[in-house]
Amino acid sequence: MRRLVVVQLAIFAAIAAIVVPFGVRYVAGPQGFRTPLLLNATMTDAFGLTAGTSVTVRGVQVGTVDAVWLDRDGTAMVRLALDPGTRIPHDSIMTIGMGTAAGIQSVDILPQTDTGPYLASGDTIAAPADRQPVQMDRIMGDTAQLVKGIDAQSVREVGTELSNAFDGLGPGLAALIDNGADISRRIHRQAGQLQLLIDGTADLVTTMAAQHDPFVRGMAASARLATQLDGSGPVFLYLTDHAPATLNSLQRVLDTYRGTFGATLANLATVMPIIGDRTDSLQTGLSTIPKGLQDLTSIVKHDATGQTRADFSLIATQGPVCNYDVDRRAIGDVSPTQPDLVMYCPPAPDLGMRGAVNAPRPNDLGLQHSQTPGYPIGPPVVDDPVKIPTLAQLVYKWRSILKGGPQ
């Protein structure tokens, strides 16, 4: 019998050794066997906190309020007991709120970062007054004051006016809602084009912002133009009075030549691609033709008798040049080409070379590997320059011959 009691006591002690720690852990939490992390907070208003109020970190319970008291200066002091191992960043703040609509308070710690340094036991955590939420009792009191300030008669009048305002507008409102849905569908279908339009508008506004000074000057010029147009009011009135007759005459001219407009436009459609392909040449011509005309005046000479003649001796005596038959590239083709190193100019007296195609062979090749000779073109060199008389000199000479003068 005694052995049975001893066995039962041993079994009870073993069960107690296992169950009691779990019970203590369940009742006291993590703080049952280890020293809790104690943090202090100084507040101007403790909002009625009491010991045992739950403490959470971002909504997760990690401890309770250990004590609340007033120090010698009348400041509310709050001490928090947190589970051991809880890491609270040094820049965290403490706030007090209502956990439920019934007014049950809770303390929440809001870390501002996720890294250390961390608060140690005995440190003070910030509890700024401007970060504390409005308490439920104050909200309910303000709500009661607001409700009391509402005039019931005014509410009835507003309801009556709204009823009168919307009376009979049901079909119109329904159509407005339907049209709004249709507009939304159309906008959704055109979302791609609208996005391009919005992007283009943004680029335009950005460009206008970057061109602030020219834009301001342009607006100023527009203002001056508007002022001038305003000052020219009488002229516009005169033109308005006499414009109908002029427009009628112009209409008769257009009607007369209506049949030729189509052919003119067709010819322009044919000519414009040709001109477009030769834009660079036209630009070069417009810049070099005036210079060429100036250089052409240098051939005009005055002899001892005061007569004026054109001296073309340079052109007449330059002699032949060496030429090659080459394939000309298409207009607008500016791609790089390789020089033909087998062309050469056979030596000959008074034979010159002209043009990039006929340039001397590079790298001092001379006549090495020469396979394609050129051929001379142009008049031979003369000993004396040929003087070409002017038309006035020819007329004077002809008259002298008719009168029997010296020939």
UniProtKB/TrEMBL annotation:
Annotated Pfam families: Mce4_CUP1 (PF11887), MlaD (PF02470)
Record field: transmembrane: none
Cellular component, GO annotation: extracellular region
Start and end residues of each Mce/MlaD domain: 39-111
Chain ranges of the Mammalian cell entry C-terminal domain: 118-230
PANTHER family from the UniProt entry: INTERMEMBRANE PHOSPHOLIPID TRANSPORT SYSTEM BINDING PROTEIN MLAD-RELATED, MCE-FAMILY PROTEIN MCE3F
Name of protein: Mammalian cell entry protein
Organism of this sequence: Mycobacterium dioxanotrophicus
